[in-house]
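Hey, I was hoping to borrow your eyes for a little while. No rush at all, and the record is pasted right below.
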Amino acid sequence: MRDLLLLLVFLTLLVAQAVAIDQSGTYAISMNMDINPASQDYLANNLRLAEAEGDRVFILVLTTPGGDSANMLNMISDINNYEKNYNGTFIVYGVSPGVFSAGSLISEAANYIYLQNGSSFGGASPIFSSPEPTYVVQKIMGAYAELASSEASSHGRNGTAAGMMVSANVSATEGGLTYTWVQAVRLHVVNGYADNLSQLVSLLKAQRLIPAGADVKVIGPSLADQFRYDLSNSTLDALLVDLGFFAILVDLYHPTGALTLVGVISLILGLYGMGVVGASPVALLLFAIAGAFMFLELKAGHGLFAASGIIISLIALFLIYGEVLIVPPSGFPSTPSAPGYFTRTSVFSLITGVEFGLMAVTLGLGVFYLDKVREALKSKPKLLSTERLIGSTGKAVQDFIGGKGVVVVASEEWSAVSDDKILRGDEVTVVGVEGIILRVKLKRSEGNYDTSNQASG
């Protein structure tokens, strides 16, 4: 009897374990983003949620032109941790137009990769924000090729073909293959293909990668995720910072307070965005210096500070750009053996050249307006200048003692001095200013000059 009870307990535990495994959840998100700090956080946060909810399968519906290499490496690390430390299964479904550059290297870290019919995959050669020696380029390309190869091999895919996505020949300084979905499947760079997500889910259920009764719902980025992603554009951040400075300056010309509020908000958003894109402290400091130079231009007016501000802003923007992996899905010449083949120079010129040009034009227009603001400020009377009170009249609020007293001029009380004998209530005329002290004299009516009112000396 005892043995029978032990057997029943053992069978119950086995059934419970099987049910627990079968009921393990599936977590799915979509990501149509560049690879940058915002998309890195988006993936990391959802991986943590999947682990907290006990989901052992994570599906990433992905389309991306690529992005920053540092964020790519962090995302690969997050995927590896989910697979190894949490014992989860990570699946990438690359949808049209495809998964390129940094995205393809991230995908190779997944347990399984499936592509949508008509999509493309690969083209992962690094692009550099500044010219680098050939040996440096070759070294980095070789390292990334090895990364792609090792990740693919460790998950049972074709490591050689995956490495060629970075460079068809690592002794060269350019290259890298982009595969069509047919080529990627045939070369086993990916595991398979599916027309749509529903077909993929059916395929995964047939392969017992997800439970048969699983209901897979794809979660998209929240408004907070999208806002953070939109602010992760370094050119937009630089423009927001400069817009903030200019808005505050313009408010000096048209004092309403509204533009100052707009300027402060713009500065905050720009600086926050720079934090998102991982701007270095040096870049942030340079933007602050550039803004200070814009303010100094109001005083100087010779254009030197304005020109310096533009140059410093461009240098700061240049520093924000690190090494990136960006490959637009189309627009580059193809060859039969290397569809989607592209060159590093053309990509760099297309992306960063346009953005730097827009930056320079915007700053140039801002400086032109800045000169107009300076001229307008010079022509306006100084609101706090006491010299404007000369010639004004007022009344003494107390008897002057020792030539000193208090008068009311322009509805305000002022300390005053006089050589005349002035009593409370006497009308006075301002004849000079000594700092913030008014020099006044007794106001006399014509034909009514009283010598007894002259102060004794």
